[in-house]
Amino acid sequence: MPKGYARTDRIAEQIQREVAQLLRLEVKDPRVRMITLTGVEVTKDYSHAKVFYTTLDGVSDAVQQGLEHASGYLRSQLAHSMKLRIMPQLHFIYDPSIERGAHLSQLIDQAVASDKTLNSSSEAPLGRLSKEGEVEHSLLPDKEGAKDVSRR
To answer: Which segments show compositional bias classed as Basic and acidic residues (predicted)?
Structure first.
């Protein structure tokens, strides 16, 4: 077995799959809807598990209270489906990384759009092609018509 993939990681992934299925199918609390589990971290002694979640509505105390209320039931159902000597105590933590990623993506899109508008408004035709294949660039908009002629 490779050293890079620890047992705690495998248990964390299994807990994430099982808790997501339990929340979707068996928990009837209306506060615990539209939740996505983003990750689980299990301590080395398997006594505690941090379950990271996000919601479509953003941070909500009602969702947090609903998850804390259901944590005992979820832990008992996990004990039935997973064969561990110690079933970790579940701690639910809101994960803002999805919102932060969406916000950063929006900022990047705004920056790209503003760059396009600046470039399109400042892009006047800089040169024209002469009959000989030379590009004539107008460096300074002189009244005298000073031109810089360069080869391609």
So the answer is: 129-152
